[in-house]
Structure of DUF2087 domain-containing protein:
Amino acid sequence: MSSHPTSPRPVADLFAADGRLVAIPRRPARREALLAHLAETLFASGRVYREAEVNEALKTVHEDYPALRRYLVVGGFLARTKDGAAYHRQRTAPLPGGATPSVA
């Protein structure tokens, strides 16, 4: 029987002293916690980012920025226009009145 604690470990455990990610977690719940943290700390709500800006922000934490970008989009933390040119942070909680943020 394993002796793993049942409470989740803090996201800070995933980062080295220099602020870079040690690894992208394989476990979905752990990866989801990381993605939520990255979305909140790297991307301002209400701002539209070009793909190059998203890449630069993600490169500050891990060299596999394409994987992080994909996980953020697939996980619903970032929304992307159909042509992939623009991204914006999505709210994880529903907006008041059922409004949905959109990109022009």
Summary: Strands lie at 48-50, 78-80, 86-89. The chain has three helices and three strands. Confidence is low (pLDDT under 50) at residues 1-5, 93-104. The first strand starts at residue 48 and ends at 50.
